[in-house]
Amino acid sequence: MVQFTKQFEGQLVPEWKYAFVDYSQLKKDLKKIHLLTNGVEEEHTETSLIKTIKSSLGKLSLLGNKDRERSRAIKVHRKLASSVSNSDVYETELLETIADDTDAAKEFLMCLDTQLNKVNQFYKTKEKEFLEIGECLKKQMEILIEVKDAFNQKQANDGESTQESKEDDSLSCTISSEEDSIKSRTEEIQLQEYCLEDLDNNGEQALKSPRSEESIKINNEDSKLRRFSGRVFSCQGRNLKIKIPLTNPSRKFSAISYFIKEDLINQSSSKKRGPDGVNKLRISKKTLNHAEKMIKGALTELYKGLNYLKAYRNLNMLAFMNILKKFDKVTGKQILPIYLKVVESSYFNSSDKVINLSDEVEEWFITHFAGENRRTAMKYLKPHHRKESHSVTFFIGLFTGCFVALLAGYIIVAHLTGMYRTHSENTFYMETAYPVLRRVVYMFGLLFLHLFLYGCNIFMWRKARINYSFIFELGSKNELKFRDVFLICTASMSVIAGVMFIHLLLLAKGYSFGQVQVIPGLLLLVFFLIMICPLNIFYKSSRYRLISVTRNIVFSPLYKVVMLDFFMADQLCSQVTMLRNLEYIACYYITGSYATQDYGYCMRVKYYRDLAYAVSFLPYYWRAMQCARRWFDEGERSHLVNLGKYVSAMLAAGTKVAYEKERSIGWLCLVVVMSSIATVYQLYWDFVKDWGLLQHNSNNPWLRNQLMLRQKSIYYFSMVLNIVLRLAWLQTVLHSSFEHVNYRVTGLFLAALEVIRRGHWNFYRLENEHLNNAGKFRAVKTVPLPFREVDEED
């Protein structure tokens, strides 16, 4: 049977961990009472007949006497709600001695009261928060239904036969404000981008506002471009404003073009103004679809939060029951019936507002978004995670065996044919065919090493109860388990080992180098086609999510930056060697060098050589642009400081490039200075900002107050290891090499060390992000809402 402690810790909401009953602390206090009780029993062991008779009479006593004895054990006082906390406070008075020392029992009951008050306060706060969101969503639903009804009525009146209605379905509503200029509307479009980001930053403060509609407003002190005049329209007797967050350039450009088109239509219809001198605002069907999608997402997040709160109530109730049973068993007193009545009547267990709101959300979703189909609605509200199959584990073992066998076969064939010998007839293989294959293998090796370490990260995050899927905003469809990641790595490396074996075997059989050199290019083409394959195979949702994230990184200044985007951009900063190999292979096949076996062409031509150096700067440039965009959106100076870190990395990389071209003492000194500055900069940011360590006032010396790992020594070791791996650039200056080891192998080894450092960095980065979410009790996403009702004064 699974212990309740493990069951309790396994089912609690990770972000609300510190709001749950501190079951481990209660068990520690109970253990003290247990030790004291055992000590008293050993000192005062009584076996007299009188004691036996008294105990027998006690068992035969009436039930009424029992109740009176129980009532004398403790008495729970319930104080009136204070004006500050607005919640009842419970205090327990101990009326009988336990183990001739009541201090331990009083300490336990005091801790129990503290936990009950904490649970009540948190539950009431979250309940109020979700009720406000539910009330706001109810109004949003009413507005959406009214606008959709007006839209459908307009379509029914106009008829579906006209070509114009087919091309541009829209709804005309009265504009309450005067005609705005295109410039002011463009400012409004820019401002709408800050809406979602401000909500993400404010977190709970936005949710605790008196009315949740106000959370959509942009803070006048913290946002850029403060002034704008919104387009307010009147529909069904309401003055409304629609806000669709413009998080990508395509939506922004389409919105600008829509407003320009709207201006032209309004100017042409200026003669058709009403007697009050107002114009008509045309709301397109696409805008309504965006608004409907936003409300649908908000309902889904609200339903998830309500389920979390119901689980919070049930788990805490079980915790109180179990700890009271243990207390009765240790002390021999009947405390459970008395205190359990208090717990059952407390606010967190007696309030049914969350259950009622959850039922209402289900009803709204079924009626308006699922076509009265409950099963369809539950797929959105309660998505089922894929069950881990044993077949995945089987194929991991199978592909691992295939990889080992193929690699062994490659080594044996290479040894028998003498391909790697310095003085051999087949040295042409090492000069032409092998360098291209080597780059392909190095590129995929680094890539799948990184992916394998990511799978290890997922395993460790799950063990540490870090909700990585919530941090990365991954859905149940595009969330990869660690076994899935290992399966992808082993299958891919088996394919690569097979290609190496076939490549060498064909050359040994006498095929020409021109024919065999096509194989590495075909391997790249196959992986690319699998990546963009539209069929629902090979983890389609995860592949397309990776493509979208890559697009966001490449065009980073134009897209709103979220956690997953800059996390993946950081991974690319550790894959510079892989990107340079990819650039060379692309040059090799695009320029047709594979047909002439001219391996050095892409390294001789100045244009392609400079392009290779530019590729080295790209990851740092993308990451710097992301920092600039986040500063522009949020206005926090820390993003500018972070941008300086990547600029220093680019300067250090630039001095290394210049030193490789002209090996002089001056450039060497500049390399040492710039690389040292960049390394110190990066180490500071790693430890203080990304990992949240080096807090001198922390309870854990030079760490932080909250640690997910129990052994503090692991954090100190990780800091030292990160410093050592950050200093790998010294090899460029010292030119250290191992005896009988090729310099290319040394370069691959250093690149692999950087990938390992990044995988090691990932765990602590996500741990710190998880603790920040837990500190603010963020367990669900904040979704902006499209409609806002505007008063006549506004």
Automatic annotation (TrEMBL):
GO cellular component term, pick one: membrane
UniProt-annotated location(s): Endomembrane system
Biological process, per Gene Ontology: cellular response to phosphate starvation; phosphate ion transport
Residue stretches making up the EXS domain: 603-794
InterPro entries, alphabetized: EXS_C, PHO1, PHO1_SPX, SPX_dom
Top-rank taxon: Eukaryota
Transmembrane regions listed in the UniProt entry: 392-420, 440-461, 482-506, 518-539, 665-684, 714-734
SPX domain ranges (all copies): 2-341
Pfam name, any one: EXS
Main location: membrane
Region (Disordered): 155-177
Record PROSITE patterns: EXS, SPX
CDD domains (alphabetical): SPX_PHO1_like (cd14476)
Topology class, membrane: Multi-pass membrane protein
Keyword annotations of the record: Membrane, Phosphate transport, Transmembrane, Transmembrane helix, Transport
Family label: Belongs to the SYG1 (TC 2.A.94) family.
PANTHER family: PHOSPHATE TRANSPORTER PHO1
Name of the protein in question: Phosphate transporter PHO1 homolog 1
Organism, as annotated: Brassica carinata
